[in-house]
Amino acid sequence: MHPYLSAALGGILIGLASWLLLAGLGRIAGISGITCSALRESGGPAYWRWAFLLGLILGGALFAQWLPAPELSARAPLLIVAAGLLVGFGSVRGSGCTSGHGVCGLGRRSLRSLVAVLTFMASAFVTVFLTGGLQ
């Protein structure tokens, strides 16, 4: 499968899933918010949250069996931990993650989400520029 086609199909599936969650349950498909609420069990029973997270994991595992996975160079474990902590910090400070702001917030024409996405993208551009890109 051509990489552009798999990317387009993935985007369609993400958009469809976020729309179904919003239309069906009135909830935003922000992964960090769903995960945090599931772990804290805040906002009522967390059954749908756990089902959503399990679907992400199982869906990724299923598609990994069908589609060839891209080859990535290994990274130092300490670098991965630092990156994860920075993403978590940014999600808390930004009141959401890229999925919540980028997929759902922009679709709802949220100004706060537009500012958040522009900040995410600017940070990504600077990071790639400073580190020399993906090697």
TrEMBL record:
Q: Where in the cell is it found?
A: Cell inner membrane
Report the membrane topology from the UniProt record. Multi-pass membrane protein
UniProt keyword annotations, A-Z? Cell inner membrane, Cell membrane, Membrane, Transmembrane, Transmembrane helix, Transport
Q: What is any one of the record's Gene Ontology cellular component terms?
A: plasma membrane
Which residue ranges does UniProt annotate as crossing the membrane? 6-26, 47-66, 72-92, 113-134
Do you know which InterPro entries this protein is assigned to? Sulf_transp_TsuA/YedE (IPR007272)
* Family the UniProt entry places it in: Belongs to the TsuA/YedE (TC 9.B.102) family.
Protein name, per record: YeeE/YedE family protein
Print the organism lineage: Bacteria, Pseudomonadati, Pseudomonadota, Betaproteobacteria, Burkholderiales
